Amino acid sequence: SSINICRNGQSLFTGDILVGGNQITEALGNELGIPAEEAEMLKVNPGARGPRAEEIEEIIDRRIESAASDFNRQLSFFWSPSGADDGIDMILLSGGGAKIGGLAAELSEKTGLTCEIIDPFRALELGSSFERDYLRELAPTMAIALGLALRQPGDKIFPDA
Q: What is the rounded CA–CA span in Å between residue 157 and residue 161?
């Protein structure tokens, strides 16, 4: 997973955490003795967990807690050396892992910051032919693609300071 802390449209800090959705899938596969495809399906579809639901949720919760702790550690690296007196206002999550139930709440609890799943479609006017629920489900995974699609020639040229 990647971290990018921005202020006023400028990136202040980037970093990586060696945790994410794949680690949850691997943990489910290893601890339950099931193939990766089945583990992925159980991770993203709580309704399919059946009689092992409690065990599956415990495995996922442990990984989420670990991810939130690692993320909080990364934030502490940013706060200390950068002298960021203004602090951080909020955390926006994107990507497939952002949809894992409980991740945003755990990050918020560990960091003390508001944590939300990004919706890159929120300011777009969409036609009635789009299924709103489907777009809401896709939103966190489409943030980068939509951002790239909205790019224009010359938008990365910065004026001389």
A: 12
Q: CA–CA separation, 15 vs 2, rounded Å?
A: 6
pLDDT (tens digit per residue) in 3-44: 677 777 677 766 666 667 888 899 999 999 999 999 999 988
Query: What would the mean pLDDT of 65-77 be, rounded to a whole number?
Result: 81
Distance CA 13, CA 105 (A): 23
Task: Tell me how far apart the alpha carbons of residues 148 and 146 are, in angstroms, rounded to a whole number.
Answer: 5
Q: What is the pTM of this model?
A: 0.71
Distance CA 94, CA 52 (A): 28
State whether residue 99 is helix, strand or coil.
helix
